[in-house]
Amino acid sequence: MSSENLTPKERYATACKEHTEIPIFYHPWWLDIMCGSSNWTALVTYGHNKRVDAIWPIPISKFYGQKITRHPPLTPFLGMIIFIPKDIDKTTSRQKFRQKVAESLIDQFKELGLSYFNQHFSEDNNDLQNLFWNGFKQQSYSRFVINSIRQDNLLNTFDGDIRTNIKKAKEIVKCETATTCPELFQILSQSFKSSSKSIPYTQTTLETLLEKIIEETSSKLIVAKTNTETIGACLILIDNNTAYLNCLGVKSDFRNSGISSLLIWEGMQFASGHVDRFDFSGSMIPNIANFFRGFGGDKISYNNVKWYKNSLFKIIHQSFNG
Q1: Do 3-142+302-321 and 148-296 fold alike per CATH?
Q2: At how many degrees (to 10) do helices 28-35 and 8-18 cross?
Q3: Is the pLDDT of residue 4 over 80?
Q4: What is the pLDDT of residues 11-66, one digit of tens each?
Q5: What does the alpha-carbon distance between residue 171 and residue 258 come to, in Å, rounded to a whole number?
Q6: What SS3 state is found at 105?
Q7: Which of 256, 243, 251 has the alpha carbon at shortest distance from 287?
Q8: Least buried of 22, 181, 194, 254, by fewest C-beta within 10 Å?
Q9: What's the CA gap between 247 and 189, in Å, rounded?
Q10: Which of 271, 232, 272, 262 is nearest to 249 (CA)?
Q11: CATH superfamily assigned to domain 3-142+302-321
Q12: 322: pLDDT confidence band, cut at 50, 70 and 90?
């Protein structure tokens, strides 16, 4: 069937099958679970001989009758992905290609009729100048990444208090890999509550996502247990060449026990059997960001990109979102 006869999401799904290297967060099944199957669309740009030149998934929800985009939870980044043909090798030619394709995506974006847009872009997305020229606003954030978790002395690169916490936690719990954890949602909810936040997804959404992740990837849960109960857990998401710390929680009574450090360490050891790169997925909560920094990763920048239809929508969304 010709691409002209496909819906935007059908064109997008076809593009994803052609480019298996795309991050897991871009896969249609991920977006169906985290956004709702009817609450996202996608932009696709074609080039010579109907070659897919770029994709851009766009979650869409309603806010007082207006179409808006909010970044989905448990999804570190989305944004444009531009596929540069291998025969374009000159730097200037590659830059011209990226600019042309980015403008095409932005033209399609304008036709969606959104009133508000909010999305995290990965550090690999360097087409922000085109967005700036079209009225998008950007704010830089950071997260930590360890590029070699297979190194022999990895534990020695951690801060001393992290190593102490790992040793202390080993006296309290034992960690094991698992594909399910009935207590996971409750544990994560307690962790959000300790930061005065509500968990941004339902138990059904989490369980559906976890089941699909285990089915589609080599990912596993790392679960910390005593003899009588599950104390904490984290999800190590394996994708292409990177492992992501996708969620992490410890019961409130054990918050200062060092179990979070142990779970991450055990997660790294599991992940090292599959990939070499470990991404902490980031947090703008100061104490969590400082905690991640103690594992000695490199600090990388990524961008939060926003767009408002007009100044009124900017005021409205700032009042609701802070």
Answers
A1: yes
A2: 130
A3: no
A4: 999 999 999 899 999 999 999 999 999 999 999 999 988 899 999 999 999 988 88
A5: 10
A6: helix
A7: 256
A8: 194
A9: 11
A10: 232
A11: Gcn5-related N-acetyltransferase (GNAT) (3.40.630.30)
A12: very low
What is the token pair recorded at 18? 């052609």
Query: Taking Cα atoms as reference points, which of 75, 61, 62 lies closest to residue 30?
Result: 75
Tell me yes or no: is domain 148-296 CATH 3.40.640.10. no
Evaluate whether 216 touches 237 at the Cβ level (below 8 Å).
Answer: no
Q: CA gyration radius for the chain?
A: 21
The percentage of the chain sitting over the pLDDT mark of 70, rounded to a whole number, equals 94
What is the spatial distance between Cα 320 and Cα 43, in angstroms, rounded to a whole number?
Answer: 28
What does the pLDDT read at residue 37? Answer: 94
What string of DSSP letters covers 216-228? HSS-EEEEEE-SS
- The residue with tokens 């009225």 is 135
Q: Closest Cα to residue 109, out of 64, 88, 78?
A: 78
User: What is the domain partition of the chain in residue ranges?
Assistant: 3-142+302-321, 148-296
In the sheet that 66-69 helps form, which strands lie side by side, from edge to edge?
61-63, 66-69, 116-121, 298-308, 137-146, 277-279, 242-250, 230-239, 220-225, 174-178
Strands (E), the chain: 40-46, 52-59, 61-63, 66-69, 81-82, 116-121, 137-146, 174-178, 220-225, 230-239, 242-250, 277-279, 298-308
Burial (CB < 10 A; 0-12, 13-18, 19+), residue 160, is exposed
Q: Residue holding tokens 């960690």?
A: 175
